[in-house]
Amino acid sequence: xxxxxxxxxxxxxxxxxxxxxxxxxxxxxxxxxxxxxxxxxxxxxxxxxxxxxxxxxxxxxxxxxxxxxxxxxxxxxxxxxxxxxxxxxxxxxxxxxxxxxxxxxxxxxxxxxxxxxxxxxxxxxxxxxxxxxxxxxxxxxxxxxxxxxxxxxxxxxxxxxxxxxxxxxxxxxxxxxxxxxxxxxxxxxxxxxxxxxxxxxxxxxxxxxxxxxxxxxxxxxxxxxxxx
Length: 228
Known about the structure:
This protein is an alpha+beta fold. The protein has nine helices and twelve strands. Strand 9 (168-169) and strand 10 (173-176) form a beta hairpin. The relative contact order is 0.12.
């Protein structure tokens, strides 16, 4: 990827949007472009954290593995989002593993270049803290959902969150173009694939959602049902 291409991607990343064209180009010149196959482990839990990643294509999932090997999905990221910043700020090992869901490309910024960028642009540190605060609030919400909602409620809330984050408005409702597998949905909310399947089928039967291949449409009535 050329510096000009990298610069265009950085323009779309929230924490860099206040930088001038020259500063963006300078930052892009410090980055390396790397590709990862579907299923590749990009970073591993407990590894030293020495790089920040900005996705330019593809999707990844952030996971923890239990003692039995069970995978718990904490979150997913897609084009334009970043991860790995926490270890650069606190100098601690990675708190989770990140795995490519599909073929993925990322711009990689190493610690030294990251620290130079923050020294030259202190406002960037505030932007990163704001992003980390947003993610912490989302984590608190997920924990609350796990504690307070039944399984059907957790599935419904997860679909609503996905629709708010990546859904496309249509005449019939909000369309999620790339629905995670039922197993992945279960890993996100602490239940089994079979339970997720029953919940989705029930939502279909009630006319709240429509599933077509990897796409899922949340009808207008879905919000009312979730908020009841």
